[in-house]
Amino acid sequence: MKSLSKRMPRLGTENAFSVVGKAKKFEAEVLAPLGKNLIYLQIGEPGFDTPKNINDAAIKAINDNQTHYTQTAGIPVLRNAIATSTSKYTGVDYKGEDVVVTPGAKPIMFYMINALIDEGDEVIIPNPAYPIYGSVTEYLGGKVVPIQLKEENDFNFKIEELESKITDKTKLIIVNSPQNPTGGVYGRELINQIAEVAIKHDLWVLSDEIYNEMVHEGEHYSIASIPGMAERTVILNGCSKTYAMTGYRVGWGLTKNKEMCAALEQLACNDVSCVNAIAQYAALEAVSGPQEEVQKMLTEYKARRDLLVKLVNEVPGMKCHSPKGAFYLMVNVREILNKLNITADVLCDRIMKEANVLILPGTVFGVYGDDFVRFSYVSTREMIEEGMTRISKFISTI
Ligand SMILES: Cc1ncc(COP(=O)(O)O)c(C=O)c1O
User: Fold this and answer.
1) Going from the N-terminus, what domains does the chain have, and what CATH number goes with each?
2) Of 8, 291, 345, 351, which residue has the fewest beta carbons closer than 10 angstroms?
3) Which of 309, 328, 338, 305 is nearest to 374 (CA)?
4) Distance of CA 203 to the CA centre of its chain
């Protein structure tokens, strides 16, 4: 058999998915026969049902026979609605023609990096970070240049660190705020400084704003809103997190750069033709319909965050700041790792097997995640309490 392409081994993955696969197997084969279960405190998706008005719009779309191909970049009403809602929070005058709708937001990473990066080009990526930015960059022959997000800076970085990484090969900077996995939100000053650097060195920016609504303190400030940036930025966003619609798979990219917008559309045409029509009508209701359900979810996430932060900091050897955004908590466990002389991967495996709680090692998100484990606070308060009782008991025995 002839081998797979040389590119293929360079493609990484989202280990969070494989960890869950292993955990489900462990739960079914080992715990269930003993009448035990796992508590899932690692989940990266909303812990709520999709609001009813959105599901009703999907059902209506089926009954209206909206079951055919659509335009590759999305149905015009949805593209217009996305442009309007993004203009509101950025102040940029986006039009429907600046939007490309994709199956989930993730393809925008693949398309933008694909459209930009040649062999040897450099992409500056925060670390720890969502793993797909780096995976796709390396797959396409680009070079990942990590920039460390430090706990003591509230998982922001100093602009001098960014400047020191720029070479004549640098083409793209990834900005993700609020951030997965740290929950960090970049301050206005840092965003302004990144924009200044991007303009000075003629760089592109991929601004992953999938958690833009999930800011519990402070504000979300889009880099695209700075004069001169909307033309060199692709905003990535979508319905998955804000509207609890991960399974619908609707996301989008927005840019004022016409050449980039056409490239995103062309890549989408080659890849998926268009997004499921029914899901697009559901997304239209999500973006342009009532927003009260979103506010209710946000209020509850904040209460869950406060509870989890309190319980985590009561466990000897676990320390975390209260994150300002998204629904994740990066917890420093260095003291425990040193005491047991193990890695965060091994600690998470032991917590799964001995405490029956699933959390993720920080290393899943990059080398600078090695002092940490990541919790999410999408589960109910009861689950958070039960999970932390189990972890606390386990830690007291080691
Ligand atoms: C930072 C970040 N960007 C993008 C995505 C992908 O979103 P979607 O499910 O819409 O593809 C995720 C999902 O976890 C994420 O955490």
Assistant:
1) 8-49+293-397 (3.90.1150.10), 52-288 (3.40.640.10)
2) 8
3) 328
4) 22
pLDDT in tens, 143-196: 999 999 999 999 999 999 999 999 999 999 999 999 999 999 999 999 999 999
HSE (side-chain half, CA atoms, 13 Å) at 300: 15
Strand runs (DSSP E) across the chain, as ranges? 39-40, 99-102, 122-127, 143-148, 170-176, 204-208, 233-238, 251-254, 328-332, 357-358, 360-361, 372-376
| Ligand 1 midpoint to CA 335 (Å) | 31
Q: Residue 203 corresponds to which tokens in the numbers above?
A: 């760089």
Q: In what order do the strands lie in the sheet with 122-127?
A: 99-102, 251-254, 233-238, 204-208, 170-176, 122-127, 143-148
Residue 233 and residue 207 in contact, taking contact as beta carbons nearer than 8 Å:
yes
SS3 29: helix
11 in helix, strand or coil? Answer: coil
- d(CA 208, ligand 1 centre) in Å: 8
What six digits make up the tokens of 1? 């058999």
pLDDT reported for residue 22: 92
Give the pLDDT score at 44. 86
Res 43 pLDDT > 90? no
Top mutation candidate among 19, 106, 365 for ligand 1, by most atoms within 8 Å of CB: 106
